[in-house]
Amino acid sequence: MSNVPAIDIHNLTASYERKPVLWEIDCQFPQGKLIGIVGPNGSGKTTLLKNIMGLMKPDSGYVKIFGDKLNKVRHRVSYVPQRESVDWDFPADVMDVVLMGRYNPKKLFSRVTQEDRDIAIEALKRVNMLEFSKRHISQLSGGQQQRVFIARSLAQQADLYLMDEPFVGVDAASEDAILSLLTDMKNNGKTVVIVHHDLQTAYEYFDYIALLNTRLVACGPTEEVFTSELLQEAYGGRLTVLSRIGELIAKKDFPVREKGQKDN
Amino acid sequence: MASLWTYFNHPNFWWVLAGTTFLSAISALVGTFTYLQRKSLMGDAIAHGILPGVAGGFLIAGEKNALVIMIGAIVWGVLTVSSIEWISRKTHLRSSTAMAVVLSAFFGLGMMLLTVVQTSGLPDASGINSFLFGQAASMLPEDLMVYSVFAVVVAFVLAAVYPHLTIISFDRATAESNGFNVRRVDAVLSILVVAATAIGIQSIGLILMAALLITPAAIARMWNSRLIGMLIFSGGIAALAAGMGSVISFTAPAMPTGPWIVLILFAFTLISMVISPQRGLLKRYRQQKKNQDIILRENFIKRLYHQWERSGQTAFHLSDIEDTPSKRTLRYAVNNDWIQLAGNSIHLSEKGMREGRRITRAHRLWELYLSKALRMRDDHVHPSAEVMEHLIGDDLEKELLRALDYPLTDPHQRDIPYEP
Predict the structure, then answer these.
(1) Nearest by CB to B160, which of A87, A97, A108?
(2) Which of its termini does chain B have fewer beta carbons within 10 Å around, N or C?
(3) For residues B185 and B168, is the Cβ–Cβ distance under 8 A?
(4) A100: nearest CB among B167, B224, B230
(5) CB contact under 8 A, B177 and A108
(6) Which residues of A237-260 are buried (b: 16+ CB within 10 A; e: fewer)?
(7) Which residues from chain A sit within 8 angstroms of residue B227, using beta carbons?
(8) For residue B204, which phi and psi values (nearest 5 degrees)?
(9) B225 and chain A in contact, CB less than 8 A
């Protein structure tokens, strides 16, 4: 494993409906760790994840993954969205969903091969869901649905995994299954980044934490970040100046960077 | 029957039948994806929006030329989609509003062009009305060939991007982050919808084409829980409805085909709503009936158990029991060895005792749980427990016992009965 950071976020400012919700985020996530993006509701955690995944265009700054542009290393990255972001009434059983992790975006007329199936079965085994492979996805509990999502992600055989709130609405059995899997992945040299809102468990789960509240409060090993001042700063309310100027930018349709100005 | 035979012998009959079933099946396949992406309204917007293309195609060709009309429809259809897209991107209007604006404007324009055609004195000009509501019987083999070639292309493209459409329909964000070009696939689907609409203009007609895109998919969803089954089913049901529609079109040529096909599809929808295995009304009715039976017989055995708790007697007279049980309940209890029945006297068996004890235990555990975990007042917990006692199975009972740490009495100081 090289020393290149898994994710390098450089001066990133991002807006949601033109209102900046992330200000000048600048931090690096090391490889081979369990990393938490932690902060209160509305602190921009999901927005940060979407910017890392290229699902949103930042107003300024950039993100590098394994030292490269996302498009060059996309096959090494896997994303697990929030469970509520999809319609679980979609006509598919568990196996169908996991196999979606094997779909090739660059190929036409592609069909699922036996190798894809074997990989999907392996992924389902790792989340303890193989016995449910023929079950319709709407008939699963919240925790089981989350495990199916993670299995689909595992089937992509990536090196970096980004998960949005995988512990929300999850039963105790699923939480245990997911946690032990995450540790397992870390021990295999994978990097896992998790958006998480619960401070209590964050300390136990993660090696490394980015503490967020529209700006980056701290970013580093868990013991260094979990100090009472920093937590107070992250959870003690938003900076009113930032939210006032954000509203102004939205209202006047103002840019965040002047024309032609580059981030370097 | 003799009259029907004359239609079968009509030179165009088999052509039209084969053609319309094929075209409709392909349209329904495309429609399944718009249904899954909740873009049902898009089909309607396109179907109305392409009318200027149809009328314009007629004017350019100077006759009813299927190929030119088809190309006109597709060009204008793409224009419809891009206008909707452009308006909703550049303004704050919702896309449903943008659709309504564009579809009515283009349909209005189309109606004006249609009047121009009708008063033009061009050959076949009066036949252009068949594009509005469909006239399957009037289709010539040459027309069908044109439509079918387009349909084959649609099927081909659909097969090429099947995985792309599937993953984007289910989970856009993941598809995009996995490297799928979501915008391009969206554009492909829009063009497919345009083409799928255009191939049906003569058999079903523009106005009702949206129904053929969406209704088969909606019916198929009621019978299938996997995409592949849904596609086969929706294609099949669309072909069946279109086939029936074209037979009717031959027997009653004065009647347009589209309305028939739509009404046949609607009948299929109603039937499916009642009898479909997953969400049919019949299934729900049966389930409710079953629940009612369970509640009645469990209440019966629970009462016997309570009487035994009070008196220590296992023999009862039927008239001593409050809420006289129905024959059906009694028969179930006897057949399952809960009780022995001789005339009007009942003997509570060991098995019946166990059942009554189980229900009573569930009831009292739930009362205690409400009182402790939800901090409900003790005199408020009974009504909920009356229902939950029938729902709490072995798993939940174990969990309750663990959560309450094997309690001995309920909030009303009654014993919680365990198996001896």
Answers:
(1) A108
(2) N
(3) yes
(4) B167
(5) no
(6) eeeeeeeeebeebeeeeeebeeee
(7) 90-92, 96
(8) -110, -35
(9) yes
Q: Does A260 touch chain B (CB under 8 A)?
A: no
Q: Which amino acid is at A214?
A: T
**Is-contact A31 A17, C-beta < 8 A?**
no
Q: Which residues of A touch B229 (CB under 8 A)?
A: 91
Angle between helices B182-198 and B66-90 (to 10 degrees): 140
Domain parsing of chain A, residue ranges: 7-252
What digits encode the pLDDT tens for the residues A129-164? 999 999 999 999 999 999 999 999 999 999 999 999
Q: Going from the N-terminus, what domains does chain B have, and what CATH number goes with each? A: 2-276 (1.10.3470.10), 280-420 (1.10.10.10)
Pairing mode, if any, of strands A160-164 and A77-80? Answer: parallel
Kindly tell me if the per-residue pLDDT of B29 is higher than 90: yes
Tell me the β-bridge partners of A13: A60
Q: Are A263 and A10 in contact (CB under 8 A)?
A: yes
Residue entry with tokens 């005792």: B353
How far apart, in whole angstroms, are the C-alpha atoms of residue B177 and residue B180? 7
**pLDDT band, very low/low/confident/very high, at B49 (cuts 50, 70, 90):** very high
Give the residue from chain B lying closest to A88, CA to CA: B170
- Inform me whether the C-beta atom of residue B408 falls under 8 Å from chain A C-beta atoms: no
Residue A75 near chain B (CB below 8 Å) = yes
Helix (H) or strand (E) holding A160: strand A160-164
CATH T-level fold of A7-252? Rossmann fold (3.40.50)
Considering only CB atoms, which chain B residues are within 8 Å of A75?
Answer: 179
**Residue closest to B163 by CA, chosen among A109, A133, A89, A152:** A109
With CA atoms as reference, the chain B residue closest to A72 would be B179
- The whole-number average pLDDT for the span B330-344 is 91
ipTM of the complex: 0.89
